[in-house]
């Protein structure tokens, strides 16, 4: 157990005991011959007093010394104790959200038994859905991004500063595309890298990785040769980001097998953000977005043209959209990425960024069937239904639709791509961005009112959908949850009728 955790448990026990005796913080501090500020530091877990001070505190609180310094909590607080001792809790990045662990403990100790029950419920939900520490850390990163609307000025500035500092050496400018050779030259000549495009091919066990990094005096980067040139360019740009931003704690594989800390995934995110900003500089990208949004009709060729202009994949392009559009166009959006294995009948949500409150219940993909009318799913189904699935080197499928939730009438303008995965044959991927339709959206995105855009009624999942079989031919399963909810309402109404008779 860490000293930090011992401090927190001690501070929590002191605060709880003080409240039980009815002493204010000032009264308690005065009787213990301590300053109120010092007692505050103790209760927040920042300080651990000397033995003589603890003995005086125990005397004032009418508590045995051994009980006060013990790390054991009362039986009613067992779950709180378990949570405090958990690796997930200790690694959670409270400071990134403007909190100290001591601040959270202060909140928990106001109603410790209720807090203990609440934390127990959270842990049980996590176990039920098979969540592990990495899931909580990734959720923390998503929340961190969404709080900042996924825009980070310091990373934008860093990408621009890099071009100014090193551009003349290799011919880098803010005019896209940035050549793969220029990025290779920077990694090799500026940062002393050895780039290896053969080793992964020779090791079948490594072929799931896009890239693997080995640190040392001469850093070595293994790159999977099965990747497209656009994917390789991003890997190189991201690697430049690690070095230029001086990010030490990082993942050493593009699909990390282990996440050791929040700082690791935060640094991975920062390097990726830098890489995207390097490949898609802000000013030309904003100009292209402005031109795209000014079109009175839906123009898929403009999205495809952006892929070619910046030499990026659909996911890279849309993720850059998520960074710039909320900040510079004042339009919130959501980003979703789905995977689908041919003939499996299942669609897996693998990545999301939700800045406009799209209804995407967490964990629902484990138990229910996402609405088959979502553009994300429809694009994948269209690929599977096609006579021949395009290869990773061919053009991605492009789609658009105006989605309206059947019950809330919330509407979203959704744009999407789908394509085959490079490293996993038989698996297709779709990415979409969606904009909540509000009265002023048409002033920003003119083609919002294009009558050629399909208007589609959607829902969260098939199990919850009130559409009839005649209204929806895409349904995957029966609306079992909806029917059970209807039965519950009927039972409630029957009970109310009986109650009114008395």
- DSSP helical segment count: 22
Number of strands: 9
Largest sheet: 6 strands, mixed
From the N-terminal CA to the C-terminal CA, the straight-line distance is 60 Å
- Give the domain tally: 3
Name the poorly predicted regions: 389-393
Percent helix range: 40-55%
Assign an overall shape.
Answer: globular
Backbone structural class: alpha+beta
Mean pLDDT: 86
Q: What proportion of the residues form beta strands (DSSP E)?
A: 5-15%
Rounded to an integer, what's the Rg over CA atoms?
A: 28 Å
**What topology, given as strand order, has the largest sheet?**
5-4-8-7-6-9
Structure description:
With 502 residues, this protein is an alpha+beta fold. The chain folds into three domains: 126 residues, 434 Repressor (Amino-terminal Domain), CATH 1.10.260.40; 133 residues, Arc Repressor Mutant, subunit A, CATH 1.10.10; 174 residues, no CATH class. It is built from 22 helices and nine strands. The strands form two sheets. The chain has a six-stranded mixed beta sheet, with helices on both faces. The chain has a three-stranded mixed beta sheet with strand order 1-3-2, covered by helices on one side. Helix 11 crosses helix 15 and helix 14 packs across helix 15. It is globular and about 75 Å long.
